[in-house]
Amino acid sequence: MKASIIYVFLFSITSTLFIRCNPGTTNNPPVIDSIRIKAFAVSFHEGQQLFIQHCTPCHRQPEHRITCDYIFTNLFERLPKPAEDYFVRFIRDSKALKEAGNDYTITTSREYNSNYNHHFKDALTEDDFDRLLIYMKAAIKLK
Ligand code: HEC
């Protein structure tokens, strides 16, 4: 009887020590966090370069917005859901969305009185679309 109490006691002490000495086994290990932060910073920068290269002929960089009715204000709240998916489809080939009868795309181009079609599916890779998305989502939130 005594021996089993001692075993239980020893087990609880060693497991407590193990958990305390291995914080990496719990939710947010600092090393993984810092890798994620670096990866995010790299993608943001690459997305920004893509934006400068392909989009600034017509659009201001989101983080430099100067008017309150800036075209990208609350963009991802407004776009049809799932917004990230719509964004990529729109940039890739907005004409295809119009031809498929997509209400949002048709209305937006009417509101802006524009017949421009975004067509970057040949100029950008899948990874580029991801980088552009990461950049846009973060840069729109910057004030
Ligand atoms: C030649 C000019 C031009 C270029 C280049 C251009 N856009 Fe646009 N963009 C427009 C116009 C005009 C609109 C207004 C709506 C429309 O015509 O579809 C627009 C609309 C948008 C919208 C929709 C905004 C809303 O309110 O729904 C997004 C998102 C967008 N552009 C992102 C981009 C990105 C990202 C790039 C670069 C990869 C880019 N655009 C390149 C002219 C351009």
Structure keywords:
7 helices, 63% helix, mainly alpha, 143 residues
How do the SSEs run, as a string of H and E?
Answer: HHHHHHH
Oligomer: single chain
- Which ligands accompany this protein? heme C
Q: What is the tally of beta strands?
A: 0
Largest sheet: none
> Which fold name fills CATH's third level, the topology?
Cytochrome Bc1 Complex, Chain D, domain 2
Average pLDDT over all residues: 84
User: What is the CATH architecture annotation?
Assistant: Orthogonal Bundle
- Report the span from N to C terminus: 67 Å
- Structural class by secondary-structure content: mainly alpha
CATH domain class: Mainly Alpha
What is the rounded Rg? Answer: 24 Å
Number of helices: 7
Helical proportion, percent range: 55-70%
Q: Per the principal axes of the C-alpha atoms, what is the gross shape?
A: globular
> Segments where pLDDT lies below 50 for 5+ residues?
1-22
- Quickly count the domains: 1
Strand % is under 5%
Question: What would you note in describing this structure?
Answer:
This protein is mainly alpha-helical and 143 residues long. It has one domain (31-141): Cytochrome Bc1 Complex, Chain D, domain 2, CATH 1.10.760. Helices cover 63% and strands 0% of the residues. The protein is built from 7 helices and no strands. The chain has helices spanning 2-21, 30-54, 75-78, 83-92, 94-99, 103-111, 126-141. Helix 2 crosses helix 7. The radius of gyration is 24 Å and the shape is globular. The chain starts with a helix and ends with a helix. Residues 1-22 have low confidence and may be disordered. Heme C binds next to helix 4 and helix 6.
